[in-house]
Design brief:
Distance between the termini: 31 Å
Strand content: 15-25%
Helix content: 10-25%
Number of strands: 8
Shape: globular
Length: about 210
DNA sequence: CACTAGATGCTCT
DNA sequence: GAGCATCTAGTGA
């Protein structure tokens, strides 16, 4: 699938998440007055990825991930946090890129207010911080991240891809997952201060131990 | 600065 | 009822 204006710069969004994810780094995510440059992402598959919400099949919560690529899979977790994914993979297949962190570009004042006065470098550092800075909640679930920015009937978040040179990208295991904890499906812009801290799940098997699927 | 413990409520079994 | 793709406040160095 090709998106208008992105023909030469982006991969096919219908490719699996681990392939698409590094290409989402550098993208500008806008929602209203606040814009963020994405600096950290993670890839999740549906099938064959025990860490994915879609691993065991479709449910009401994860249904958006089984839909067409480019849409927003937004979920609520840990009793108080929202997180947003860009759906990828072909329609009918679950795959998504979790947008974990970014650096605020526009709307500093509003983002600071929403985040309660944390230092600017931490305004969108972590998946829940990012959605809070951008005021993304379940209300934005399912929207087209590549829809017309001027569409008055849909004021949800929009993504503008802007590739980062491969030599500036680092990768490693995903944060906080208890299964498939050693797959290097987390990607970030090297040395970016807005990238969140790595933390292995306390429930994950020891490093390098076999991870049953 | 590094590290730990607890909050908090939705989702699925 | 268990588990969770997390965060913050609190402690101690």
């Amino acid at each position: 699938m090709t998106r208008p204006g992105t023909e030469d710069t982006v991969p096919d969004l219908s490719r699996p998440a681990p392939e698409v994810a590094p290409h989402v780094l550098g993208a500008i995510l806008r929602h209203g007055p606040v814009a963020v440059r994405i600096t950290e992402v993670e890839a999740y598959l549906g099938a064959n990825d025990p860490a994915s919400h879609a691993w065991k099949g479709q449910t009401p919560r994860n249904a958006v991930m089984f839909g067409p690529p480019g849409h927003a899979y937004v979920y609520f977790s840990y009793g108080m946090h929202w997180a947003i994914n860009m759906v990828c993979g072909p329609d009918g297949t679950a795959s998504g890129v979790l947008l974990r962190a970014g650096a605020v570009l526009d709307g500093f004042e509003i983002a600071r207010t929403r985040r309660g006065g944390v230092p600017d470098g931490r305004l969108a550092r972590g998946p829940a911080c990012l959605t809070q800075a951008l005021a993304i909640t379940g209300d934005q679930a399912g929207g087209d991240l590549f829809g017309d920015p001027d569409d008055q009937s849909d004021s949800g978040p929009r993504l503008e891809l802007a590739p980062v040179a491969p030599e500036l990208i680092s990768s490693g295991p995903r944060v906080g997952v208890s299964r498939a904890a050693d797959r290097a499906w987390r990607f970030w812009v090297t040395d970016e201060p807005s990238v969140s801290a790595y933390k292995r799940s306390p429930r994950a098997p020891a490093v390098g131990a076999p991870d049953p699927e």
